[in-house]
Each structure stands twice: as structure tokens, then as C-alpha cells.
Amino acid sequence: MSIDVADAERESAHEYQEANRECERDAVRSRADGGVVAQLRLDHPDLFLGPTLERAPDATVEPEYWTTVGGRTLVFLNVRDAAFDEFEASLEVDPTVTDPVLLDRVGDGRVYRVAIAEGTITFVDQAATTGAHLLDLSSCRDGTGWCVQFRFPNRDELVEFNSYCEDRGVSVTVDHLRVSDDRDDGVVALTEKQQDLLLTAYEEGYFDVPRGISQDELADQLGVSKSAVSQRLRRAIGELCHATLS
Q: How many helical (H) and strand (E) elements, i.e. helices and strands, does the chain have?
């Protein structure tokens, strides 16, 4: 047997072993078939930022992202439609957060960073535990907690999340429910902010060729960050596609 042939056979055997190892690995579990889209309002005095939202009911607060650094969970907030002196005074005495910092001014809005205080009631971690996909999150317009939209893998996970909230005294109000694999109901679970954005984008020619308005201009017109416009557009269009094409 020549050296070349021997090398080729060893290489072939190695590839075969690698292929077998790949087959032995567990496949990625899927929970993406169907599910329940739930639009909820969550309220409790000890819920994250609850006291501030109650004291500054006109403010619109949208968490942009959060991360854990040095054992602290930091949340970055996009805030608009607020009397900012009143809002910042509320942040300073809010027991659910610590170390509030003004980071940026974006149009008529502002971006803050806060740390979640120990003992504060949160809900995003529990939603993640149940496998819920966060579609939208912002403060309710009347200052009564958070308006949130999740896609739960099934009704059991929605019930589990509701039980978690009940155990902590968190009020859960269901504004809308949709079975996401139900092709007959025809309901598209867009939030009010997603609807406002799509309507403005349509009326201002964002979907025209060439475009009549950019994402930056949409953000300025709506008083939100460009990242908020981009994320909300993507989620809203995704919901429309899911409802009409699936």
C-alpha cells in the first residue's frame, strides 16, 4: 500500500468517526412551533421602577437592554414625554433602583442607566426561564406598571409565568391573547407603539422607493432612539409576516 493511499484511508476513517460523533450529539431542541402571544400589564409597588412610573405617569420608559457587571444588573432606559426634573427626582428616591445616571440626550428624549436594587421584583428572568420570547416592553401610559408582550411556547408556560407573578402579588392584566399557530383568527398582535410606528412610517413614505423618510428621521419624529425604531419595525413586520404567511 502506498503512503498516499494509507493517508487517504486514515483521513477517511477520521472523517467517519467525526460524522458518528456529530450524530451522537443531541439535536437542538425546538419549541418554535406555535405558541401563545400575550400582551400583558404588570403592576406592583415593588416592581422594577414601579414607584417612578407612578410618580411620573406621563413619562414613556423603554428598557433598551440590560447586563450584569460586577454582580449588579444594569438597565439602560430610553425615556421620553417626561418632565425630566420630576422624573429624575423620582429616580433618586425609587427603592427599586440604585445609582441612576443620565447618559445621553436623544432628540426630546433621554437615556438613563440604573442598577436594580436588591429585593426588587422583576419578571424578565422568569419569562426567560419559561422560554418566553420578549416582543415588546415599555411603561404603561397611565403610570400603572409595565406593558409587555411575550410569545410563550405554549399555554402551560403562560400559566407558569402568571403563577410566578401571583405568588409575588404582581397584578397581571391580559390585554390580548393570540394562539400564534391559529390561522383562522386573523388577529395580528401588534402593540400600540408598533402600530403607531408602522402608520407613521407608511404615511411618511418609509416603504416607498426611494424612501421618503429614513430611520433616523422616524426616530426624531417619534422621539425615540434609532435602535428602538429598528427593533420595533423588525418585530412589527415579523408579526405581520407570521400572521399572513404562516
A: 8, 8
Closest CA to 61 of 93, 31, 84: 84
3-state SS, 194-210, equals HHHHHHHHHHCCCCCCC
Give the model confidence (pLDDT) of 212-242 as tens digits: 898 888 988 888 887 788 878 887 777 777 6
CA distances 211 to 99, 147, 199, 205, 236, Å, are 42, 31, 15, 6, 19
DSSP character at residue 202:
H
φ/ψ of residue 183, rounded to 5:
-85, -5
The C-alpha cell of 81 is what? Answer: 414625554
Nearest to 136 by CA among 29, 239, 246: 239
pTM: 0.66
- One-letter amino acid at 94 equals D
